[in-house]
Design goal:
The chain is mostly helical. The protein has twelve helices and no strands.
Length: 301
């Protein structure tokens, strides 16, 4: 049984986690509103998975973040020392702590594979229907839910120690491998292409691929400390736990859902324009420009 830490050690981290959860909720609500309002520019098939990622990140701030706070504080700090009523409520709560974070990671895998298909098969990618993206989103949720159900089952039959070895670490490792290999292949394809395309659609897809690459890299950097920490806890013979290391890992783990709206604002021109319209009532120049186009040009567009 690990010792409880003092209030001076726990309360600052509690404040940091609460502020982080509030920031996740606010930024992802703004992101979702911008994507909904900018239908013409941002709600394309290629951005469906990014919109879904924003919704999942919002659920991280609403559900997983508060449960993460409750879980860590009840284990490490005497101020929140209490027991749950039933084991099943504890299992379900522990499952929801990680459900949306792992859904976010699975969504990043889907985005990397979708960008890989868009880079290597651009013409086929143009004719991918909306139903394909909806099916991908359903599969994303099924993978995350099955993983959490397996975790509850292993915990219930008394194999809690194998959860890190068979559910957490392999999932992180496979995700890291798929995402890195996908974007390495994309970079090689773009660099070695003999016939670069300079029309608007290709530039737009390449810009979206660059944004997805940055989102994935930053997210992996946020997940990496948790991966290393779980590997240490699972395979180290000298068990050592420090409250500051533990809480820092949790903060970085949740930061995965915090940084994505910032990246969208920096790298997606349409998103920046939507932010300006949302806060400063800037007119929609793209809509006005489209309205002033001749009918023949509209048909071509």
């Amino acid at each position: 049984m690990q010792p409880f830490y003092s209030a001076s050690q726990c309360i600052p981290w509690l404040v940091v986690l609460i502020i982080e959860c509030m920031a996740i909720i606010i930024l992802n609500v703004i992101t979702t509103v911008v994507f909904v309002k900018k239908k013409r520019q941002l709600q394309r098939r290629s951005t469906y998975l990014i919109i879904h990622l924003a919704i999942v990140d919002l659920l991280v701030g609403i559900v997983s973040g508060p449960l993460q706070i409750e879980n860590r504080m009840s284990k490490d700090c005497p101020q929140w020392n209490y027991r749950r009523e039933t084991t099943w409520s504890r299992h379900i709560s522990f499952a929801f702590v990680h459900l949306f974070s792992f859904t976010s990671l699975t969504n990043l895998i889907a985005i990397s594979l979708e960008r890989l298909h868009a880079t290597f098969c651009p013409f086929r990618h143009r004719f991918v229907s909306k139903w394909v993206y909806r099916a991908i989103i359903i599969v994303i949720w099924l993978i995350a839910i099955v993983r959490e159900v397996a975790q509850i089952f292993l915990w219930e039959i008394g194999y809690f120690e194998v959860i890190n070895a068979y559910l957490y670490l392999p999932f992180y490792a496979v995700s890291l491998f798929v995402i890195c290999v996908s974007y390495i292949l994309i970079i090689i394809k773009v660099r070695c292409s003999r016939h670069p395309r300079f029309h608007y659609r290709s530039r737009r897809e390449r810009k979206l691929t660059g944004t997805a690459l940055i989102v994935s890299l930053v997210s992996l950097l946020c997940f990496l400390p948790a991966m290393i920490y779980l590997a240490y806890l699972g395979f180290s013979f000298t068990y050592f736990m420090n409250v500051h290391i533990n809480m820092a890992v949790v903060v970085l783990f949740l930061a995965n859902s915090l940084v994505n709206p910032i990246i969208y604002a920096l790298w997606m021109p349409g998103f920046r324009e939507g932010l300006l319209q949302l806060f400063y009532r800037v007119p929609d120049f793209s809509r006005n420009a489209t309205a002033n186009l001749p009918l023949c040009n509209l048909r071509r567009a």
